[in-house]
Amino acid sequence: MAYLRITEENIDREHICCAMSNNQSVRKKNWLKERFKEGLVFYRSEERGKCFIEYMPAENAWHPLIADGMMHINCLWVSGALKGHGYSNDLLNECIRDAKDQGRKGLSILSSAKKKGFLADPKYLRYKGFQIADESDTGIQLWYLPFQNAADIPRFKDCARHPQAAENGFVIYYSDQCPYTYYWVPRLTAVAEEHRIPLTVNHIDSREKAQNAPSPVTNFSLFRDGRFLSHEIQSEKKFLALAGIAAATEK
After folding, report:
1. Which of 22, 35, 58, 23 is nearest to 6 (CA)?
2. Sign of the CA dihedral 24, 52, 49, 129?
3. Which of 44, 90, 65, 51 is closest to 212 using CA atoms?
4. Are residues 98 and 220 in the same domain?
5. 201 and 122 co-located in one domain
6. What is the pLDDT of residues 82-119, one digit of tens each?
7. In the chain, N or C terminus with fewer CB closer than 10 Å?
8. How far is CA 187 from CA 169, 170, 247, in A?
9. Domain end: 141, 159, 177, which one?
10. Rounded to two decimals, what is the model's pTM?
11. Mind listing the pLDDT tens digit for each residue in 233-246?
12. Nearest CA-CA partner of 235 in 179, 184, 163
């Protein structure tokens, strides 16, 4: 398999693996363009499909964590027909090589005890030598792979370890790091307005906001009356079910 690095020079003409449509691709690409100057790297397979890795210095990562000197992997994703061919190893090995060349102390990445569709597979991480460094109340785990024995163990900030929202009603925090939010958040906003469901939407549009967000996963977090509900991006139907009015909409 051959791989391509997405850069400022080629991003406008190259596809990115996780975008659902042209508009979502533009939103995600704009986010990437701003991050390249902060050290973000995006590699994907030359073959079309979901096969890519996205990483950046942990000091610049859009998550409320402390992992100074490490390289943080935003996403490592290989799926569909591209799974099972060792491509994840190729991508991870390139990240390790690059991080070591930059003098980084190790890698960090988010996962969980059980596999979640939007996070790295914990079984794979353990197989590759990663260890659990910290865990939030929501079950999101911070894993790390140290290159040095004396490397500091990364950790979540308290706001990520104990997620909660200050506002009443439903509350969404989201960023443009995930293109799926561009599709779903406006739909959730519209259905909330239609059914008069109290909903506050907070767009995480800066690194400072991301690094002080009230949950470890900044792509999407849903709360209700201050209590954390989910990191899974909700469809209109699922959101209405959470609001307790799904049955009425199906009649």
Report:
1. 35
2. negative
3. 65
4. no
5. no
6. 888 899 999 999 999 999 999 999 999 999 998 888 89
7. C
8. 17, 14, 19
9. 159
10. 0.92
11. 999 999 999 999 85
12. 184
